[in-house]
From TrEMBL:
It holds the Pfam family LON_substr_bdg. It comes from the Bacteria. It comes from Tabrizicola soli. Signal peptide: none annotated. Residues 11-208 form the Lon N-terminal domain. InterPro entries: Lon_prtase_N (IPR003111), Lon_prtase_N_sf (IPR046336), PUA-like_sf (IPR015947). SUPFAM superfamilies: PUA domain-like. This is LON peptidase substrate-binding domain-containing protein.
Length: 218
């Protein structure tokens, strides 16, 4: 759908802790704050309809100015592909992930929401076809995932997971599992699908050890 030349230099950004957007994945969002309602309305008027999902960066109190939150260096842009409005004026939208980006600088202006000048070039692979992971062993991975879901008291449609394409499986788990914002940022920045899968395995194994470095009991 998009080529590198289609991507704008400046995009609106939505800083949301723990929210992860990945290329070719979908993220539903419930929009109710006035500044983000304005962002959606403005975004729908553009030809690209892109919003950059980005996580706030923890800032020491001594460095934080009132009302200001620093942003992570890397985020991911999604295109509004689903939109509905509730009777009380809230928006329910769906973003479809297009490409990651690196923030060059924040753009000052008169919009109530934040905008950034971004660089897409480090992530040209995001605009390509679905990624593969030759080292993926579904049986072992699903067994580990099952133990994690039991420990975390999570439920899912296991039949769908067992049949899902590898990229969809890994990226969906990256977005949906209750990892910390820092861990989700690491998943976002993983350069390849197999690196992201290895990161998920490490995070799951750490959780199964109860957050310690002890060996997992078999």
């Amino acid at each position: 759908m998009f080529s590198a030349s289609d991507l704008p230099d400046v995009i609106p950004v939505f800083p949301l802790p723990g929210a992860l957007m990945l290329p070719r994945a979908r993220l539903p969002l419930h929009i109710f704050e006035p500044r983000y309602l304005a962002m959606i309305e403005d975004c729908l008027k553009t030809p690209h309809r892109l919003i950059g999902m980005i996580q706030p960066r923890e800032t020491p109190a001594s460095e934080k100015r009132e009302g200001e939150t620093r942003l992570q260096a890397i985020g991911c842009a999604g295109r509004i592909t689903g939109f509905s409005e509730t009777e009380d004026g809230r928006y329910m939208i769906t973003l479809s992930g297009i490409s990651r980006f690196r923030v060059k600088e924040e753009v000052q202006g008169f919009t109530p929401y934040r905008r950034c000048l971004v660089d897409w070039t480090p992530f040209t692979r995001d605009l390509g076809p679905t990624e593969e992971d030759p080292g993926f062993r579904r049986g072992e991975f699903m067994a580990l995932l099952g133990r994690y879901f039991v420990k975390m008291n999570l439920s899912t449609d296991w039949d769908s997971l067992k049949e899902a394409e590898i990229e969809l499986l890994i990226n969906s788990l990256s977005m949906l599992c209750p990892f910390s914002p820092e861990d989700k940022q690491a998943l976002l920045e993983a350069p390849t699908l197999d690196t992201r899968r290895e990161t998920i395995v490490t995070l799951i194994e750490f959780a199964l050890r109860g957050g310690s470095d002890e060996e997992i009991l078999q």
